[in-house]
Fold each of these.
Amino acid sequence: MAMRGHPLGGSSTQQLETPHGRFVFKRSAQLGEGCAAKVYEGRDLESGQFVAVKVYKDIGRTSLHCFHNAIQVGKLLNGKSGKRLQDRTDRGLFVEVVAHSANHGVPGPDLGFLFHILELGGPSLEDVLATRYRDASALSMAELRDLHWSLFSMAYKLESLNLVHLDIKPSNIVSFPQSGNPQWKLVDLDCVVPAGAARCVVTKFGDITFTPAYIAPELARAYLRAGPGQAKHCPVILTPAMDIWSAGICALEAVVLASLLTDQYIKLQKETGSDHEFLKWLGDVDEQLFSSGVIESLRTVDADMARLLVGTLTKDNTRRLNAKDCLMHQWLRPISEAMRQKASSSRSLMAPTRSQLHMLERKSDTTSCKQSTATDEPVVKPIKLNKPLKQSTNEQSPDVAKWTSSTCETM
């Protein structure tokens, strides 16, 4: 039946249609929910394909901004804009908006209904890690390397377009089927904002969205300096290093199969009744994330991987690796070398330029890479941080309420 009123009302078993009836979905088939919208599994009646239907909760100013921002950013990230380190860095790393509501051809509300139609993926990284933990089946070395490559390729593409996502986390990393390993893609492009290394960058509606357990330490320090209830009134400079931290946390969690900082956040919030202690611990440059014992444990998995993770998870953002450093790191050298060889033998117009190939051939400061294949044995190591953390349960981590603070937070 066609929708009357807002599509989020009514029975959960009712089949709902978008205006003009091309896409259908049920409220009972909800895939996820964010601040501004809910996502459902649906079907395109014209093609018969399953899709993801992202329905915004209203057509107010914030929802309209998110709606338009996701369309514009998606075109940039999935297009040919920005630098190309090599072919694989641009190959489907961001979810695509395949259709959207429009009024007389102009993107916007259609009969009071604001929505995106997205390509439908498989399990999120959060789902995959929870399943692997439950089954005591760690990711193989090849799977880890492929995931890490995707995470830092996402950060590289964002940086090349002077953008930051600020909410890179396992629930926003979704697997899409393809031959061989799954292709990981970053979703929730509503929150992408411009970066600014030398000036304050304020988003159009003044807000940024992030999840406490995945924010960079410099954002935590800015929040604390502003004081309770004052963060939205202070300036902030958003930098690509913030996305590197978030990607690094995801990369680490894939190794240890634990939602590390989420557990820490929940633990400290329950003990103190506020976010202050977690933010204080996260933002303290003198209290590093890794103890010497943690680093040694990571080295037993792979020494090059340990160096990469430590380099991306340095609380001092001026010493943190950038995205290009990550992609050229020895841990990821097997992939970058394979891409270089493929590009050099290809006559495709998509091949990298000579200068980009030169970048790939530059020597890394780290030692020679430890080769691995898809047949590598999974490795599970008991790794603890400086602060004691609650062991992850078999269930997915509970959703942590996103904070919304103004882009005016002083670094």
Note: The first strand starts at residue 15 and ends at 17.
Amino acid sequence: MRTARAVGLASVADALREHLHVCCGVALGLLLVAAACPHVLPLGSGASRLVQAALVAVACPLVGTARVEKANADR
């Protein structure tokens, strides 16, 4: 918990936890766009895979950060 406060993650997690429904909606939208990437971008290029990985890398921690901080605070 001290590390999270020192890095500034605690304040970010508090803001995300207060607006968890928005975070879930944004994460769902990012994952849906990531799922559509291979169908929208050209198949032969590697850009589809890179964009897909970037979207997933942003979407997953959106909800996870708030939940981990909440679990640490509840202990």
Note: The chain has one domain: 2-74.
Amino acid sequence: MTIDFKFYSGGIVTNTGTGDVNDFYTALKKHEATINTLATSQKPLKIYVGYHGSAGDASSAKGGYSHPFTDVEMQQVEKIADLFQDRVRLIVSQNSPFSDAVVEAAIDEGNAFFTWCYSDSRIRQFFRISNSYND
């Protein structure tokens, strides 16, 4: 399983791959310095979490909703978030994907981390920006 992140202007972060919460944590450690520049107590990084993204098939587009996190996965997410103390805020949706309106508002506000698998495929359709930090 391969998880990696893309960093866009405005403090937008997406997930380009797939994996479990432990894989996500490994990728998070790889990019910890960059994440720490975005996550401050004055402007916490909003982390959109709670479900697995689809790899793309007839029933769901790539980056769409696949299935909710289990209780164990949510506990793992909360432990990871605790490492950042007051510098992150979890925004959770488990039974359905985040709506287009929520995604658009988050992008407009900035400092948002869309964590579900292949979120980059869904989020890019909302961008009004053309470049990322790691392209």
Note: The mean pLDDT is 89.
Amino acid sequence: MILNNSQLLKKVDDRLVQLLQVDEEFQAEFNQIQAYYLKKFIPIINDRDKKTFNAWLRKSMIEQFQNGYMMIEQYYNDENAYINEQLYTLPEGMFTENTPIILREMLQPLLDQGILLDEIVDTDTTSNLIVWAIEKYEDIRPLLKQTSFDLTCLGARQALRDKRKEFEFKTITLETEERKLGNIGDLIFINPQMYLTINHVSSNVEYWDIHYWSSNLRGIEKIGEALVLSDPDYIATKVKLSYHLSMLDFIPQEEITAIANHHINKLTDYAEADEIQYQLKLVSNFFSQI
């Protein structure tokens, strides 16, 4: 059924109230998302501005999420809307990776008219925050733009999740294998912006590539590599697992540390902490292997 504007607004508002105020599982997920992005600005914002900035950014993130959700609803509020059945049957990681691609495709007619992406997706709150922030912090604009678009894509993903349920699509079941860092049958998101894909796996080796989510506005894809080696001679060497992480050198140190800690914590399911050897490395490119 095609809804008029007021009916569509009410439908979206009711669903977002349910998500953000009633659904405890979603609230926990969204709080983690907000905390992840707020942490990115800690090294930038001075103590004097922190309270104002954080409150403003929290409001911006909620509104961008709402905006992304509404964009999907508006697109499907059309009897000629194309329903991408393949998208809706993808496992969750692949589904998430494809969401920004789908959103860009939906917005392409407006982009073809010369309208800039931020003019389409940014709310007034976000635009005002950016104007205020760049007057005080010269290099903050790209990070704010990326945060804005990511939250828009996350709102779109939630709307697509709801559509998947509405259309009664079932996620396909792939042949999967659980390895130490994750299941090789899907993309493994380790935070809202980064995910793992399996590159090579054998009895004693698992080699993963780390990618930025397709929402990345700079078009950067691969940003890291993770290698886990199981030592069959660990009784002699006292090293049961070796973990090697290489990341592009522009990734903030605190994010690299968070990834390493996350992985090493997973590895403690397979070995004691003192049986795990690890190495972290910064690289300028990935023409060479770990």
Note: The domain at 178-283 is CATH 3.40.630 (Aminopeptidase).
